[in-house]
Structure formats: C-alpha cells, structure tokens
Amino acid sequence: MAYQIIDWNRFYENAKSRSIDNCSWSPIPTKQDGLSYRRIAKEFPQYYAVFVGLVLACMKQRKEDRAGWLTDDGTAEGIAWTASDISAKIGINEDVIEGALPYLCSDRIKWLREVKERKPLGEGDEE
Fold first, then answer.
1. Which residue in 28, 38, 50 sits closest to 104, CA to CA?
2. Residues 51-83 pLDDT 10s
3. Total tally of structural domains belonging to the chain
C-alpha cells in the first residue's frame, strides 16, 4: 500500500520545476477559498502542515520519477513511506501523520489517494 498526491502534475509542477532535478522549492497553489482547504484550516490545521511537508518531500525526488508518490524513489513501484518515514522526512510527530493520512484521503478532502495494489505506470496509475 502506498499514497499518492492527487493531481500532482497539474498542481505541484510547472514548466520550471519540470526542468529541474531535485528541486529546492515547490509551486504550491495559493487558493484558499476551496472547501477542502477551509475544512482542513478549521478542523485540523496541523494536517495542512503535513500535506505541505509531503509536497516538499516529493519535490526532492528526481524529475523523471516525480509524480507525487510517497515512496522511496518517487515511483509507483517504489517502497512506500511509512508514517515513521514521513515523520523523519518532514519533522512532524508520527501520531499526527497517522491521523493526517486517512483524513487527507477522505471524501471530504481528496488531496491524497491510498493505492493498495500498485501497477506500473501506464496501466491505470496517474503519472
């Protein structure tokens, strides 16, 4: 099982980032009037910090592999990050990560997706 940031290429990449291997910055949308953002800000602002940390961690992956996968190599086939791995990467307590992951996948938010059976890219997984 692994997680993937939904619509990675659409929201978290731009022409400049696509040309850079191992980015040291990230284009993150500034829209703050969406229902998902408002729910997170009101209910669990610490989960927003987790999500931003996930985006930044994924931006460090190689440009050829960057697709929002929370895996060791950024690919659908990579080794999935555990809550402990994510905590070590982004510096937020593991218990907060464990609460954030299902919340960010929920129908109320839909910023992450949980993928139980992963297939190689090109067989139904988002690039």
1. 50
2. 999 999 999 999 998 999 999 999 999 999 999
3. 1
